[in-house]
Write a structure and sequence with these properties.
The complex is a heterodimer of chains A (162) and B (435). Chain A has 162 residues and is an alpha+beta fold. Chain A is built from seven helices and five strands, in the order ααααβααββββα. Chain A has helices at 5-15, 27-38, 43-53, 57-64, 86-90, 93-104, 146-161; strands at 78-83, 110-111, 117-122, 134-136, 139-141. In chain A, strands 2-3-1-4-5 form a five-stranded mixed sheet, covered by helices on one side. In chain A, helix 1 (5-15) packs antiparallel against helix 2 and helix 3 crosses helix 4 (57-64). The longest helix of chain A is centred in the C-terminal third of the chain and has 16 residues, at 146-161. Chain A is elongated, with a radius of gyration of 18 Å. By secondary structure, chain B is of the alpha/beta class. Chain B has three domains: 26-237, Rossmann fold (3-Layer(aba) Sandwich), CATH 3.40.50.11540; 245-328, Ubiquitin-like (UB roll); 333-430, de novo design (two linked rop proteins) (Up-down Bundle), CATH 1.20.1440.230. Chain B has helices at residues 26-31, 36-42, 46-55, 68-73, 99-105, 107-121, 135-150, 181-188, 217-229, 231-237, 268-275, 309-314, 333-347, 353-370, 377-389, 397-411, 413-422; strands at 84-89, 125-130, 166-171, 212-216, 245-252, 258-263, 266-267, 285-289, 298-299, 306-307, 323-328. The chains are: A alpha+beta (162), B alpha/beta (435).
Chain lengths: 162, 435
């Protein structure tokens, strides 16, 4: 498999980060960084990561099935992750979640038919003091109200057109 | 970036550079006493460094509160194996959002803390294990690390001291359990994040079975000030055996939620009312979880307490990770406990049965109660299941689920019973527990 030059450079640096004979350590970062580029973990990627890290595909698969951010199906262009854990819940995350599912017409880990937006209910994302919080891909959005959430969705739709 | 206004009651030691222009740059860092603690440490023996940390009364900021100096002293410095320094930046305890700020606003402070730990235990390589969700922090940290190499604060013969050190970032990919130190090491080795049996502890057999110092981000960030200004000065900021300041993350029902650096031992009620601006809409305080969702909940009348490890332990809870979750009089404790149990069930790694099955039972019981299918005996059953998990699991995640469960159903028993009376249906017992 070939990746973008940026990702190849990252991989090269990554494999040098660990002592000789310890390239298995690179499996998880490599999967996540590759997923960011490919959108999800494909069969081909599992085998490629196994080859590059010197482990068996099974050793990669068991990692993919464990870590919640690694996925075997594509997410939307914008992956909207709503935290509903305790601190966010106390600031209305339950209503935000319900609003989001109705507004988008999709449920947890589903993608809109146009492939633009996917939704996921996530555990604590470390934004408790600025709750309720949402992550779109890796970007944080703090202190959301229903109105601000709608504006966020609008801005995502707009930037998709551009 | 800062996400909330600072409070005039703060004592800024670890957060002193927050808000400065270019606070992440090495120029700003060096202009504000940066790397002075390292230079001082480089002129000391490892024993002297560890003694200074012991004098500071610094205790682990990840949650356990173990004395940092003692932890470092356990590392066999003369071992022929390589030694490692590992930063636990897998912040994930619900209610906790401080390590994120420390890395975002002052990454060089963390690097300096790691370097000093390296000197103390004779380590020459380190890893910052960052949770996958904090991707933007990897970029900030990588930038700071590159800057440190360029300016000779990482790499070979650092600033002519003869000390070599290499530092790398490493990303997780979504797992609360990897915040547990031995599971973190498994993950750093490229495996599923399941805990290891201890002993041996990581100090002796950690990363790649080599001696390893593993501390929380905030713990490392306290180290430069301790070496620079002396352990005694840091200790004096706090209470006996609880040195320094702490980044408290106020969340939930307060007017000014935010992360605030306050001296150890700061009174919890003052924190809520004077720092946090009180409870919105003139509501009354009902309960507080003082240190992240795994800590036993406190009733309002228990909250006149000094926020240090020992004082909070004395009243049966824990200072934990500094996540202070405030709940007003309208909070439904059944819903709150249900949400917390859902979390631990989701995050149990499945390695040991008391945790895997226990968290599942607790979640299912709470779901049944919440949905109106509960029977009166369920309240006792929640407590029974939780008590049978305590101390019987491979790692602290089992206890982390059991402690809130026991405290909620004990301290708010009336509310659980009222809820069951109001929300029961004739088909109650048909609601499945196997879901």
């Amino acid at each position: 498999m070939t990746f973008s030059p940026e990702l190849e450079a990252r991989f090269e640096k990554l494999l040098k980060s660990y002592p000789p004979g310890r390239t298995r350590s690179a499996v998880i970062p490599m999967l996540l960084y590759a997923q960011d580029e490919l959108g999800y973990v494909t069969r081909e990627l599992v085998e490629e990561v196994a080859r590059r890290c010197g482990v068996t595909p099974l050793q990669v698969d068991e990692v993919v099935s464990y870590y919640s951010m690694l996925r075997r199906k594509p997410a939307g262009k914008y992956h909207v992750q709503i935290c509903t854990n305790i601190s966010c819940l106390l600031r209305g995350a339950d209503k935000l979640w319900e609003h989001a599912t109705q507004k988008l017409g999709i449920g947890n880990k589903e993608v809109t038919p146009d492939g633009l937006i996917s939704l996921e209910e996530v555990e604590c994302i470390g934004a408790c003091s600025w709750a309720p919080a949402v992550q779109v891909n890796y970007d944080y959005h703090h202190g959301l109200t229903l109105e601000k959430f709608d504006q966020l969705l609008e801005s995502l739709k707009k930037s998709a057109v551009q | 970036m800062l996400y909330n206004e600072p409070s005039p009651l703060e004592v800024k030691v670890l957060t002193r550079r927050f808000g400065l222009p270019n606070s992440t740059s090495i120029d700003t860092y060096l202009a504000t006493d940066g790397y002075k603690g390292f230079l001082k440490a480089a002129s000391m023996t490892p024993e002297q460094i560890i003694d200074e940390v012991k004098i500071s009364n610094l205790r682990g900021r990840g949650g356990a509160g173990f004395p940092t100096g003692m932890k470092w002293a356990f590392v066999p410095r003369q071992s022929p194996k390589p030694k490692y320094v590992v930063v636990n930046a897998d912040e994930g305890e619900p209610g906790t959002c401080k390590d994120r700020l420390l890395m975002e606003n002052d990454p060089h402070q963390l690097i300096e803390g790691v370097l000093i730990a390296g000197l103390a235990v004779n380590a020459h390589a380190g890893y910052i294990y960052v949770r996958g969700e904090y991707r933007y922090l990897i970029d900030i940290l990588d930038g700071a690390i590159a800057e440190a190499y360029q300016h000779g604060w990482l790499g070979k013969n650092i600033q002519g001291t003869g000390f070599d050190f290499d530092l790398y970032t490493h990303t997780g990919a979504g797992s609360y359990e990897c915040g547990e130190e031995s599971a973190l090491l498994e993950s750093l080795e490229g495996k599923r994040g399941v805990p290891r049996i201890r002993p041996p502890f990581p100090a002796v057999a950690g990363l790649y079975q080599c001696p390893t110092v593993l501390n929380n981000v905030e713990t490392f960030c306290a180290i430069p000030a301790i070496l620079r200004d002396g352990g005694a000065a840091f200790a004096a900021l706090g209470t006996p055996k609880n040195g320094g300041t702490r980044l408290f993350c106020l969340s939930g029902h307060v007017n000014k939620p935010g992360v605030y650096e306050l001296p150890m031992g700061f009174n919890l009620l003052r924190m809520i009312h004077e720092v946090g601006g009180g409870i919105p809409n003139g509501k009354k305080l009902k309960a507080v979880i003082p240190g992240g969702s795994s800590c036993p909940v406190l009733r309002a009348e228990e909250c006149d307490v000094a926020m240090d490890f020992d004082s909070v332990a004395k009243i049966g809870s824990m200072l934990g990770s500094g996540g202070v979750i405030v709940m007003d009089e309208d909070t439904c404790m059944v819903t709150a406990l249900w949400r917390i149990m859902r979390f631990y069930q989701h995050e149990s790694c499945g390695w040991c049965i008391p945790c895997r099955e226990g968290t599942t039972w607790l979640k299912n019981l709470m779901t049944r109660i919440l949905q109106g299918g509960g029977v009166p005996a369920d309240v006792d059953l929640v407590g029974d299941v939780a008590r049978n998990m305590l101390g019987r699991t491979f790692c602290p995640l089992g206890d982390a689920a059991a402690m809130p469960a026991i405290s909620f159903v004990t301290k708010f028993r009336d509310e659980f019973e009222q809820y069951l009376k109001k929300h029961s249906s004739p088909v109650a017992e048909l609601v499945s527990l196997g879901a």
